[in-house]
Structures are given as C-alpha cells and as structure tokens.
Write a structure and sequence with these properties.
Blueprint lengths: L3 E6 L5 H10 L6 E3 L2 E6 L1 H10 L6 E9 L3 H9 L12 E9 L6 H20 L10 E9 L2 E7 L21 H11 L7 E3 L6 H11 L19 H13 L9 E5 L2 H14 L5 E5 L13 E4 L4 H4 L2 H17 L4 E6 L4 H5 L5 E7 L2 E8 L1 E3 L2 E3 L2
Parallel strand pairs: 5-6, 8-9, 8-11, 9-10, 11-12
Antiparallel strand pairs: 1-3, 1-4, 2-3, 4-7, 6-7, 12-14, 13-14, 15-16
Helix pairs in contact: 2-7, 3-4, 5-6
Length: 381
Amino acid sequence: MNEFCIAASAAFGLESVVAGEMARLGYRDTLTDNGRVCIRAGWEAVCRLNIQMRTADRVSLRLGSFPAETFDALFEGVRALPWAHLLPRDARVDVRGKSVRSKLASVPDCQAVTKKALVEAMKKQYGYTWLPETGTRFTVEVNLLKDQASIWIDTTGTGLNKRGYRPIAAEAPIRETLAAALVILSGWRPEMPFADPMCGSGTLPLEAAMIGLRIPPGGRRSFDAEAWEIIGKRAWQEARDEAWDHVRKDAKLDITGSDIDAGVLETARYHARLAGVEQQVVFTRRPIQEFTPSSPGGCLICNPPYGERLEDAAGAREIYRAMGEVARHYPDWGYFVITPEKSFERLFGRPADKRRKLYNGRIECCYYQYFRKTGNSRSRG
C-alpha cells in the first residue's frame, strides 16, 4: 500500500480554504466529499499535512467504503479490509462512530460491530487466537451516510487547532483553525498592516503572525501517527525540517491587537511568547472607538463580542456601529467581521462586498467581508 486516500477534515464553509492549502503544499488533485478534502498520496503527505495545515481539523486515512444496510453487511465489510497492512499485531484500537440518514442508526452498536470485525480480521491475518492490545493506540472511525459505510483511521490525535500556544483559554475564544481561515479569506499579505481591535486572548493576530512568518502550525506538537512504526521517525523529522526551513525569520510584520481588558491582553502576550511571535505582535489597551491605523492599506479582522457571548445584545450592537464609524474614517482599509448578528450590515452602515456562512463553535455566523478601496476600485485584503 504505497498510496492511500488521505483526507483533511474541513469545518462547514471552509472546504475550499482547506483545498487551497493542500494545493499550495503540492496536492492539487483533490476531491471534496462530506466535509473532507481527499487526495491520493503516500506517508509523507500524512506528516506534511499534519505539520503544515492551518485550517483543517484533522488528517485521516480511508481504509475502505462499502454499502451497509445491516449489521451483517457492516461486519463483513470491515472484516474484509487489510487491517494487518497498517495495524501491528499488538495495536490498541478505539472505535468512534457517526450515523446520518442510515438504517444502522445506533452508533454504539456500529462501533461494537466494527471493533468485533476488525479483531476477527486481525486474528486471522496474524494467525492469533486473541489480540493483546498492549501496543500503539489507533483510532478507527466508522461513518455511515445514507447506508454507505466508510472506515477511517485518524492520524492526528488531538485536533489540529491545538498549536501548543494557548494552554490558557480566555472566555469566548475562536478556534485557531477558524482564525487562520479568516485571515486567509481576507486576502491579507505579510507586507500589509493587520489589526484586531477586539483581540481577546490574541488568536487572530497570532495566527496572522504565524502565517506571515511561515511558522508551521504543527511544528511544536506531536501526532498519533508519530508512534506508527509503518511511517517511522525519519519521515516525520524530514517533514518537520522541511516546514521549519521555510520560516521567514527576519520578516518584519505590522500586526496589532487591542482590547479593553488588561487581563486578557496579558494572556495574549503570554500566548505570543509561546507561539514565538512576541516580537511581531503589539498588544495595546484601547476601545474600538479609539482605533487608529498605523499606516494605510491594511486589514482589520475581528471576532467581536455579541449577544450570545456577552448576554448584552444592545452593547454588542453599539460596537458594530462603532466599527462602521472606523470604516468610514479609514476607507483604504479592508474590514472582515465574523458575527451571528443578522442586522450587522445595517448597524455597520453598508452591505458587505461578500458574505460567507461559517460556524464559530456551535454558533451559526456570517463572515462579512468589506474589501479595501483603492482609488475607484476594491481590492481584496
């Protein structure tokens, strides 16, 4: 098995962003299916995608897919897969599951049948009468959609949003993967000023800085598949070396984050130190009403407070009006705001140039995009 179906999981609305990242890594022949962006590639892709993907949730291998309207069909389909090609004889296997619009609706039963079938397959393929399950842990996923089962093996472990720089979670954070996607969607480039005037614990400015410096988001963490003998330590080290070789150590960035909460700004500075970008991001205490650009032609991206977070919808709407005032004073900047507020455009003062439906956690939001004005035209970023 020299090549596999390898998939990067994408949150709703971010499939094209994830596919774009994969293309920039050289994997242009992609297929998007049910929230996963898939490629055919070898083990080096597992290492490279885990270490370098900023917007994907995790990386998985698809072992097979087959119809499964009954538990017997699920059992036989799982048992027929080449488990011994990937799993060592002492593998510890956990099974996760999901069922959508399928006759096999009981996820615990699907998990149990999958585990029983793969154990039977492993016993036969290795010539064992029982499996010790004392070795490396593997997480198998059984997903049923419209009576079609697909079997995956997770390579990531803890989600890719865990970069290692945010051990302290401030109230109402935005996931690192979503923050990176917002920066990419804005069209911001490292030579442009960047500002988040309601930065909280600093995730958006930090992700922008990591993009600007080309710091690999997974460069300082471990992954489940690092323990797989079939991949080996050398492949992971080569992938890490490649990623760190592209870091722009001497890049000069103009990135600022501000907030009215002094305590949360201290947390942001701590996160910046852990991320290795403390020299590139400046945090200041000030309200949105006092925002002043450092130079023209920049990009303002923020995840402002809103009713669900503050329990103060009126206060949130005042913030949106203040943002509109800032935009009217500095029209040469681009403004990019993620919020669930349906009346945001009215409060901001004009319709967005582009909108994208996204989710911040479980909250349905819209990403309002106002591109910067250059003369009589609009420019992304």
